[in-house]
Each structure stands twice: as C-alpha cells, then as structure tokens.
Amino acid sequence: MQESGKSKGLRRVNDPPLLILTSLAEGPKHGYALAQDIGEFAGVHLSPGALYGAIARLEERGLIEALPEVERRRPYQVTAAGSAELSEAMRELRRVVDVGTHRLGLLQGRLA
Amino acid sequence: MTHSNSQRPNDLKWYPRSWRDRYGADLEQFLEDKYGNDRIPLKVRLSMVYSGTLERLRSGGIVGSSVDPGFRVRGASLLVLCAWAVFIVAGSAFAKYTEHWPLATPQVDHWLPAAAMAAVQAAAAAGMLIVFAAGLTCLPAFVRFIRSEGWWALWPLARPMTFSVIAAGAASVGIVAWSNHLGPNSTTPLGLRIAGVLAGLAVTAALAVSCGTLIAIVYRLRFSPRVTLFLGALAVAMTAALVVIFAGVLTWWISTALHAPWFFGSLVPRSAGTPAPLAMIVLGLLMLSGLILAGVGAFRIAIFRSHVGETVPSLST
C-alpha cells in the first residue's frame, strides 16, 4: 500500500525497492530521510508500511545494509549487490526510455 | 525524542516481534518525525495493519521466502490445518442440512448423490485420521517443549482457547437441555433457534481460537527435517481429502438439484424447489475458501519440500 503522488499517470515509476535503491545511491539515509527524498525526486509518498516492508525485503536480499543506529534512527546504505541490481534496473529503464523517445518522435512527426 | 503519542506502540502491534525488534524503533521514530503530536491518518494506520499482517505471514513461513524452508513447510502445513478447520465448520453444517435427505428423496434418485455422500464421509474420516496422525507426530516435540519450558509457558497461549471451549461447551449443553424439554411434535420456538445460531457461532469461534492456539504452539516446537517433511506429506494428503469432500458435496448438490429439487424447497416429493438454496451457497463458498487455503499450502509444500534442512542467512543486528 502506498500513497502515490499528484499524478497516477504513466510518468510515475513507483516501485518502492527501486525508489529506495535510487535514493540510497546518493548516500546512507534513515527511513524518514528516504521518504522525504523519494517524495522530492519521484513525487511518490511511500506509506510507512510500504517503506519499511520494502526496506526489510531489500535487506533480506542483501541489496542494502543497516548502519549503526543514530538517535533511534537506523541509516541504510546500498551494498555492492544492490548497486549491481540498481545498475541493471537503470539499463532496463533506459532501454524503455530510448525506445519510447524514438517512437514518440516518429509519432509526433506523423501527427504534425 | 520522546513518545508524545501514546497510541504509537499500538500501531506496531500488527508486526511480529522479530520484525519489531529490528525495525520497530526506527519506524516509531519515523512516525514521530513525520506526524509529531498529530494523529496518524487512518490511511497510514491501515497501511501498517496490512504491512504488519503481511510480515506476520512472512515470519510464519506462509508467504514469501524470508524464513528457512523447513519453517515454510511447517507454515504451509498449518495453513492446511486452518483449511481443515474451515471444512469442519462447513461440513458440520452440511451434515445437519442433509440429515433428512435419505428419507426425503426416493431411493430411485439416490445412487449418485448417495455415492457422493459416501465419498464425503470417507474423506472426512480420512481427514480425522490424518489430523490424529499429525498430532501423534508432534507429540515428542511437544513433550520436549513441556520438559524444557514447563506447562506454565503454555498457559498464556492456551488461556483464550480454554475459555472459548468452556463457553462453547456450556452453550451447546444449554441448547441440548432446552431442546430436550420440547415435546416430539412441538415446533421449535424462535428463542431456541436464535440460541442455536449463537451456540453455533460460539462453537465456530472456539474452533477458530483452538486452531490459532495449536498454530501458536506448533510454531514453538522444534522439528527435525524428517518430521517436518512427514507433516508436509500429511498436509498434502489432507488437501487431497478436502478435494474429495468438496467434489462429493458438489456432486451431491448438483445431482439432488437435478433429480430431487424439492429437497431444497418444501420437502414435498415432486414439488418445485430452488436448485441453489442460500445455505448450500454459503457452505459451498466456505468450502471453496478452505480449499483455496489448502491448495496454497500444498503448493508451497511441493515447492519447498526439497529444500527442508537448508537455512537462509539471518540479518545481523
């Protein structure tokens, strides 16, 4: 369950694990900072249940790891496996973006 | 920061203890940072109920692959036990509903539904034997648990079951005593009917609580991989028995609706009747839901049985 942003259209990439890995690629963050960052760069407002559920799964899969707690907040960072997974996801997304951009250009050419 | 909202710890009660130990403080701090002294929106609380329930199912090995395969097989076997409990409720109601069926329909219309009914009864008896065998299989581990933890370790788990069984037993005895006071030809008073429904609900609740208690106890027992696999095999056999029961009930229903539809109506032979009475629809749906539970359990047992004995790496704290 997640609270989506303003638009529920095709523009949103709202897979919580992908968003979390993308956010953590910048550096370690705790849960609240992650939610804030994801809200800012993706416009997706993850509910606490969705956020911590995804964190738990990512940690189980060894894609992120917990750092020592600071004032009751536990920061997480991406592991090497997480970095590889994110890299692969970005490649897949880029392929879709490239094909979509190319075909959109052709479509707009026909419509003009 | 302090807990300014006394409801906060309650919001995490849906999560299993192991999950709370790892993420609870962080999540509480998240809620504190995000909502401060404000009330947490209902939508957010519901998301935690959903997420917490999902985590409980994961930690019980019923969904996902977060716990060891042996634990997943155990969770799947317990899911089949829940399905059996659902069938007990539906089956008891079916037995009550069909108690006058042999007399209300002529013998010439009987052979197919009678065969179906016999299959249902045989599968139900097989199901009872399977549960008995599963109980015997768990007994040594249960004895070891009692020796190491003592009977009092069980009391917090068994308390709700004890009270609900006593209440259901008292309600059932009361109903029987009341109905015994009625003459053989007198009609059943409305009060007794309502009390009968309430007693039925009490028995159903007691069965659900007992099932939950059994599950909670079985999760605390230590099983060898061999015992886990045997329990998984029993659960698969139970699923087969439930399939037979469901198919038998369905066959009985269809054949009776085709050849003796008055049984679902006025009971007067050759009179009109509905092929789909509400009681049979409810029973059918109840059994179907049980069958789906059992199917999911049997499927997970089939997937994970070859991995029993393996472990998944645990997270460092």
Name its key features.
heterodimer, A: about 110 residues, mainly alpha, Arc Repressor Mutant, subunit A, two-stranded antiparallel ribbon, 4 helices, about 5% strand, elongated, B: about 325 residues, about 0% strand, globular, disordered N terminus
Helical proportion of chain B?
over 70%
| Helix count from the secondary structure assignment of chain B | 10
According to CATH, the fold-level topology of chain A is Arc Repressor Mutant, subunit A
Main β sheet profile of chain B: none
Average pLDDT of chain B:
85
Morphology of chain A: elongated
Q: What is the N-to-C succession of helices and strands of chain A?
A: HHHEEH
Low-confidence stretches of chain A: none
Largest sheet of chain A, in brief, is: 2 strands, antiparallel
Distance between the termini of chain B: 22 Å
Structural summary, described in words:
- The complex is a heterodimer of chains A (112) and B (317).
- With 112 residues, chain A is mostly helical.
- In chain A, 59% of the residues lie in helices and 5% in strands.
- Chain A has a single domain (16-111), classed as Winged helix-like DNA-binding domain superfamily/Winged helix DNA-binding domain (Arc Repressor Mutant, subunit A), CATH 1.10.10.
- Chain A has a two-stranded antiparallel sheet.
- In chain A, helix 1 (16-24) crosses helix 2.
- The longest helix of chain A has 32 residues, at 80-111.
- The relative contact order of chain A is 0.15.
- The model of chain A has no long low-confidence stretch (mean pLDDT 87).
- Chain B has 317 residues and is mainly alpha-helical.
- Chain B has a domain at 84-154 and 222-307.
- Helices cover 73% and strands 0% of the residues of chain B.
- Chain B has ten helices and no strands.
- In chain B, helix 4 runs parallel beside helix 9 and helix 7 packs antiparallel against helix 8 (190-220).
- The longest helix of chain B has 39 residues, at 111-149.
- Chain B is globular.
- The model of chain B is unreliable at 1-6 (pLDDT under 50).
- At the A-B interface, helix 2 and helix 3 of A face helix 2 and helix 3 of B.
